Amino acid sequence: MADLAAQGETPEILFWVGCAGAFDDRYKRVTRAFVRILEHVGVKYAVLGMEESCTGDPAKRAGNEFLFQMQAMQNITTLNGYGIKKVVTACPHCFNTIKNEYPALGGEYEVIHHSTFLQQLINEGRVKVEGGESYKGRRITFHDSCYLGRSNNIYEAPRAVLEALDADLVEMKRSKANGLCCGAGGAQMWKEPEPGKKDVNIERTEEALATLDGNAAALDNLYGVESGNAGATPAPKANGQGSIIAVGCPFCMTMMSDGVKNKERENNVQVFDLAELVASAEGLNA
Amino acid sequence: MHFSIQNFLFLLVAIAGFGLFAWQARKIRANISVGRDRDMSGNVSERLNKTLLVAFGQSKMFKRLTPAFLHLIVYVGFLVINVEVIEIMVDGIFGTHRFLQFLGPVYDVLMATNEILGALVIVAVVAFWWRRNRKPPVRRFQGPELRAWPKLDANIILYVEVILMAALFTMNTADLKLHQLRGTEMPGTFPISGLLVGLFPSSEAALHVLERVGWWAHIIGILCFLNYLPSSKHFHIIMAFPNVYYSRLVPQGQFSNVESITHEVKAMMDPSYEVPAPATAPDGSALAPTPFGAKDVNDLAWTNLLNAYSCTECGRCTSVCPANITGKLLSPRKIIMDTRDRMEEKYNSPLIFSPNLYGQEAKHESQEVLDKENHTLLRGYVTPEELWACTTCNACVEACPVNINPLESIVEMRRFLVLEESAAPNSLNVMFSNIENNGAPWAFSPSDRFNWADDLYVAEKEVVTA
């Protein structure tokens, strides 16, 4: 961004990478996939690079309002200094914080989650999701992130992206507004869970795996879901090809990947972010 | 019109009943107003819309079809049968009999609807009772916070509803049979009472007594029930409406901004920033500074306290809570119930019952970890372990049929733990210092923040040369 500003230019969008996108080895692949898509469609974008700092989301959720506001004001100063109007991010936590909590502190931007952005690109025909890997016949289930779904009512965009992939999209019984948290929100990512029967991500992974395997109906441990409620779509029996748990959040990515490993299903179930799926369908994979 | 001593008695009973209720309502109003100020004015049309949809329209109930359907019967029954209460009031005061009969065919429809709904209410109430008392009960009625008084309370409500309906049918059937014996036309249509006449005695005197007993039992029952409400979870039939009206209109993910901290942070970043003078008492002396976050009920916003009086303890919040589902201590319902219990312990209890007297101890599984010395909402009722189990996923907020927000109270108490007591779990303190020192919650150097791009360009170069 600094380089661009030095040339006297302003970008169309600012891609907010986020700490996970910058440091987490798994999510760095998502960052790169999204950047490839941006370059492929020729959007004039910029990143803050070393000038970016944590939005303060985990501090705020954990109750450290002071630290949150310090972070927020610092980031707002940076963003306003460059005259940023439009921010795109692949992290629902950054998305929620910048969109909903920065305005009270003087940071007003148009903030877009990458699922919405990808949906727009597909709708406009700028990304055709063809020429690369085909997902025909593969089963995908989307795990709703709390900070995208319930927090900001974004349920359709990620599904529209997945539908464009021509895969078999199956819904978990607890999905959309009834979705179950991956277990990492509210700063849980940085601490051990409190004692209980099991970890939240294991519960959620079991549900995702059962859905992909086509026995979601056999799940008898679905607390909070009235039996007989519509919602879960029956999936065809597994056909040997790898199934996919799609996510749109770095925390969900970590939690679901850990869950799949814990269940020793890495050989036939993979966890991918929406941007990775779109990039490889478009033939942009690294 | 036919005045008698009955009308005088009725007037006394009605005045006593409503007066007592007003007195109890004032106590609850006082309890709610100990909460912190929060400006909820404006957005009237949006709020009214929400109230129509969520409170009157029951829209959030329909996430679960069986209980939604049963609840709808009782709710519509409550609304429609209350029209008959108007009639009872007018008859009671002015000595008229079935005053609304001037409505003609409308009265026929009204009475028939009343009777059918009355019968359906009994069916629904029996189903509710079964869901709660079978072994084991429906899962969301099993929580440790639903033992003792809350369990008894729920059953009392169901019994009273059956008694009220039985009184209504006694009154109608006796009246109908009296008319049949005298060969006169009974105003209104009574499909259920018509089936019951055979069971009633054929003596005019007995029927007259039965009619009066039904009439008095119904109205006294209603007045007693009205005064039972402030001690009960059933208070939701009144409080749900203001609670939905004053619910949050911002996205669920938006957490409240702490204004006082904003001033401090701005002053730190800009020395010329003028921090507004602290609030002063009417006599000019400085007020004690308000703590960050919430330690006790009066540190919560008044809307959080209104939430506590609107809760019907249905447990939809707890049954969707990821922490609770996986066996952790957190139960959003318990947080809300604790808030109300603590309020009534510290300030006013309703007149008739003090729920605190009924097995308060039994309600909390983790009594031994509660701090008896610091007897406040936080630590005295709610343990930090419960609070730290929350993933802030908003499932509880989404699930509540009357727009209660347990998450807000949880976050306020977390703020107190972190900002006033520095009592966060150690791993969170590590995360805080990472953010402070490295600008990231993990211990990575800020100078490595752009490293992801190196690989990108390397990869692209490879593609080009390949």
UniProtKB/TrEMBL annotation, chain A:
Keywords: 4Fe-4S, Iron, Iron-sulfur, Metal-binding, Oxidoreductase
Boundaries of every Cysteine-rich domain copy: 14-99, 140-209
InterPro entries: Cys_rich_dom, HdrC_iron-sulfur_subunit
Annotated PANTHER family: IRON-SULFUR-BINDING OXIDOREDUCTASE FADF-RELATED (PTHR43255:SF1), IRON-SULFUR-BINDING OXIDOREDUCTASE FADF-RELATED-RELATED (PTHR43255)
UniProt-recorded name of the protein: (Fe-S)-binding protein
Species per Swiss-Prot/TrEMBL record: Hymenobacter volaticus
TrEMBL record, chain B:
Residue ranges of every copy of the 4Fe-4S ferredoxin-type domain listed in the record: 302-332, 380-410
Alphabetical UniProt keywords: 4Fe-4S, Iron, Iron-sulfur, Membrane, Metal-binding, Oxidoreductase, Transmembrane, Transmembrane helix
Membrane-crossing residue ranges in chain numbering: 6-23, 68-90, 110-131, 152-171
InterPro entries listed in its UniProt record: 4Fe4S_Fe-S-bd, 4Fe4S_Fe_S_CS, HdrC_iron-sulfur_subunit, Helical_ferredxn, NarG-like_sf
Family matches, as Pfam families: Fer4_9
Source organism, top-level taxon: Bacteria
Keyword Coiled coil found: no
Name this polypeptide is given: (Fe-S)-binding protein
